[in-house]
Amino acid sequence: xxxxxxxxxxxxxxxxxxxxxxxxxxxxxxxxxxxxxxxxxxxxxxxxxxxxxxxxxxxxxxxxxxxxxxxxxxxxxxxxxxxxxxxxxxxxxxxxxxxxxxxxxxxxxxxxxxxxxxxxxxxxxxxxxxxxxxxxxxxxxxxxxxxxxxxxxxxxxxxxxxxxxxxxxxxxxxxxxxxxxxxxxxxxxxxxxxxxxxxxxxxxxxxxxxxxxxxxxxxxxxxxxxxxxxxxxxxxxxxxxxxxxxxxxxxxxxxxxxxxxxxxxxxxxxxxxxxxxxxxxxxxxxxxxxxxxxxxxxxxxxxxxxxxxxxxxxxxxxxxxxxxxxxxxxxxxxxxxxxxxxxxxxxxxxxxxxxxxxxxxxxxxxxxxxxxxxxxxxxxxxxxxxxxxxxxxxxxxxxxxxxxxxxxxxxxxxxxxxxxxxxxxxxxxxxxxxxxxxxxxxxxxxxxxxxxxxxxxxxxxxxxxxxxxxxxxxxxxxxxxxxxxxxxxxxxxxxxxxxxxxxxxxxxxxxxxxxxxxxxxxxxxxxxxxxxxxxxxxxxxxxxxxxxxxxxxxxxxxxxxxxxxxxxxxxxxxxxxxxxxxxxxxxxxxxxxxxxxxxxxxxxxxxxxxxxxxxxxxxxxxxxxxxxxxxxxxxxxxxxxxxxxxxxxxxxxxxxxxxxxxxxxxxxxxxxxxxxxxxxxxxxxxxxxxxxxxxxxxxxxxxxxxxxxxxxxxxxxxxxxx
Length: 722
Ligand code: GLA
Known about the structure:
Layout: H1 2-20, E1 27-34, E2 38-45, E3 50-57, E4 72-73, E5 88-91, E6 102-111, E7 114-122, E8 128-137, E9 142-151, E10 157-162, E11 165-170, E12 174-180, E13 188-193, E14 197-202, E15 216-221, E16 232-238, E17 243-249, E18 254-261, E19 268-270, E20 276-277, E21 280-286, H2 289-305, E22 316-318, H3 320-323, H4 329-342, E23 346-349, H5 380-391, E24 394-399, E25 403-404, H6 409-413, E26 433-434, H7 440-456, E27 460-465, H8 486-504, E28 510-512, E29 530-531, H9 539-549, E30 559-563, H10 570-577, E31 581-585, H11 593-615, E32 617-622, E33 629-635, E34 641-648, E35 670-676, E36 692-694, H12 695-700, E37 712-721
Parallel strand pairs: 22-23, 23-24, 24-27, 27-28, 28-29, 30-31
Antiparallel strand pairs: 1-2, 2-3, 3-4, 5-10, 6-7, 7-8, 8-9, 9-20, 9-21, 10-19, 11-18, 12-13, 12-15, 14-17, 15-16, 16-21, 17-18, 25-26, 32-33, 33-34, 34-37, 35-36, 35-37
Bound molecules: alpha-D-galactopyranose (GLA).
């Protein structure tokens, strides 16, 4: 009896609640954002609100979307009836802390492969406009979304939240894959099931996006996505600063994903008629697991996301790990010879070449004083460029333009050009401070540093642009009473400088580095040709680090250098570097004869096959997270050429590994299998070497790979035979 009463009261309560929260409103019309395979569908309710009704594989019949309910308001404002994390939160001039957003207009523009849909939302009571933009890259199946916020109130409004994107997902369970780490241990992959409430991936570093968390994720529906199966959304934010990706499962088990600039310490005072443009959030949907999602991103990045993505890249020898700060003209010009001998295109001079009052003999002084140290380099950079050319290689240089050592002439001259808190002692990281890039004079200084150097030495063919610290004790002397704008203005200023530089130097290759891999985001990569993944160049570690980046970035962006870190053979080091943009950072004169002749041969192999590595479709076949080995391959679009990399890590004794089935080949073609990069003295057991197989066999049965001893590797060239 008591139980029946309880049940009855629950039913009455539910009915009452339903009355308070009315059923989802009826639809007036739908707005469909779609690529070749994916649809993101909105509907406009009779109440003029915008709802997201669908995100997933494109339906054959668009009429079918009409049967879907208006469950989730698309871009939820704060202050009225929203009880979960909002996409946007604003304080009006009159103290009203709410927004209501109703659809006012929509427009679609087509530009070949790109279709851009803009949906204008307006508040019925306040002069505020929020425009949601979606560019659908048809062939690559990538959707880019960003938001523009504007108002005509009398005085600035305060923005507390300003998501680039809000997405809604409905499933029974949600699995999140994130990538995290620290200096020298970047991109550690971890997958976990989301539980009710909020999970946030974010960073508060200011000058760089990642170090502890990278702004990328996979969200799999219902069960963890594998490499080749499962429904998965892959997302990333194009912002080179503090970011936030927030995943919230509500009371009904629905998930909302808010992505954008981190609202942390960043209330934004938006002036009347100023447009606040959020960074771009990029995502793809795959119903064939993470592999397809990665390939979508790779193709998109080469076509649209990175500087010169379909162009070529220079191979290089860097002197950082070979000399650190300890070099002079003689040592360097000798190294040029090594670069030539290996057969690479360029010599890259790293840190330690500048500063006179405070020479840069270590990382404690000189940063900011960009004049050649005359005791080390008496004839200047021009001489080095000439000498390199005489030896037959190009010359590139390291810069860290946004930073300063307190022990420098720059700091002495401009103590107010530095981000630092008044009334607090300076806080150093790597003995340095961040310049206040929000100050136009500092922007001019950074631009001129590069411009003057390039004007004086037009033959400099490459720049490595570093950024070795995050913001702490953050305070901008320039922004004065707008301190909550520093984090945002810094990144905008960085882009402003890069825009100017790229207008003048559109083709100069520039590697982006951030004390290892701290700036790997598509906001910055528009201006850069490649990035430095990590200061950890031990090839065993690099298998994991490079594997991690491969989920979101094409191999042409990943600078993989062969160095003396790690005790593995030069073959293992080379084979690991070859899976991306290969380079060297090694003392060539200390190589044995066998090592040198192996390396020269490897450079030739690489030059022959690098287009395939850089632009082929990546298939990750065996994950180092699942087995004691890693196997991946790249196949070209016409499926007549492929290259496979197999890395044996620390296998247990007598482990029997199963054959590895290949992907990306044509079952109807025949392929010759040849092991390359063989080294004298390292015996490789590979019975398939030199044999021909049908594509069908390689896909369904696969190859037995030489995976049985510690830290060994094989590179296999796969060529169609007619
Ligand atoms: C950072 C970079 C390194 C190197 C040093 C130079 O740590 O990641 O590759 O350039 O700075 O100081």
